[in-house]
Structures are given as C-alpha cells and as structure tokens.
Automatic annotation (TrEMBL):
Residues 19-187 form the Nudix hydrolase domain. It comes from Lasiosphaeria hispida. It holds the Pfam family NUDIX. Residues 89-110 are annotated as: Disordered. GO terms for molecular function: bis(5'-nucleosyl)-tetraphosphatase (asymmetrical) activity. This is Nudix hydrolase domain-containing protein. GO terms for biological process: AMP biosynthetic process; ATP biosynthetic process. Keywords: Hydrolase. Gene3D superfamilies: Nucleoside Triphosphate Pyrophosphohydrolase. InterPro entries: NUDIX_hydrolase-like_dom_sf, NUDIX_hydrolase_CS, NUDIX_hydrolase_dom, Nudix_hydrolase_domain. It comes from the Eukaryota.
Amino acid sequence: MAIDLEGVDTSMEFCRADALVMSCGTVTLDLARGMVLLIWNKALQIHQLPKGRRNIDEPMLNAAVRETYEETGVRVTPLRLNIATRATPPMDADVSDGAPRKNPQVTEGRPSTEFLGACLYPDPQSDTKALKAVFYFVATADSTTIPASGTQEAHEKLDTTWCPIAEATTKLRFQGEIAAVLKAVEDVKKTGYTIGG
C-alpha cells in the first residue's frame, strides 16, 4: 500500500501541550442492576458522565478512576473488556482465536482496560483556544452503595445520580457521551457479561 505522504503532510497538525486539554472519565455500570453512573451538573443544568483533567505524569486509567471518585464519591473498579483497539499487544501475546482478523491493524479478542473511545471538542471553559480530548474507560460499581461526601473540589457543584442504562440516551445532554455509553454496553455484552437480572 502506497502512503500519500503529501496528504499526510497537509492533514497533520501539531497541537502544543498548552493548547490540548487531556481529560479522562468513566462509563461506570452497575451490571447487576442495569444502571449507569451520571453526574447532574447544577451550574449547567445537565446530566454528564464523570470526567476531569489528568494530573501531570498520571496514567490515564488512574485519572479516570480518580476523577470519577472526586466528582461522584463512588469508588469504581475498571472492567476488563474485549475492546477493539489500535493499541499494540505485547510481543508474547497470542491475539488470535483461530479466526481470521477483520483488520490486522486492530487488536481484538484480548481483554484489557484500554479506553473505549474519546470525545474531541473545543474546550468551552478555556480563555485561550484549546482542544479537549476526553478518554473514557469502562468501570463497575454498586449503585446501592452510599457515595462518599466531601470528594469534590470547591468549585464543583455536582450531584451523583444513577439511572437505568436505557434512560441514559435521553438524560445525557451530549451525543458523544451517549455514544460512549452505547459503546460500553456493546463491549460489555461482547465480552460475555450480563447486564441486569
């Protein structure tokens, strides 16, 4: 396959670190009860998925788990799923299950805690031009556990809510977050987990 180097050159953009906001969050599911964890943003009057900025040198998955706890008071556990990813498997990994791979550039059939996707958009809270990238991971938690209090930063005005997964498509304000929930559910089922009783 010939690579269009000119096309790559004209489409490639360099984004400085001070113009790129990296955030991480979770799609947290209570698998037994078929619920998804949301936040109610009192300032904006909308439901959202929990997420926040990654700290310097912090691994992305750690940031997603930490931000979810800080915004909701809910301790979550990352869920290992069969997520199709372009991440490279370890050299010693057997990624084949005997079936031909649909796309040799995509790793499938290897459960991991890789992010399931990302939402990209101009950061509406930045005083200067910045691109925001929110990487979502799938996690589990018990929706009947009482959230810890006092975990939010002083400026955050958020309420923790759980809703049936089927209602998330009408509660969430942003299409990108709805797509993240739908992808999480798809990957959970593809991996063999059962949602709800």
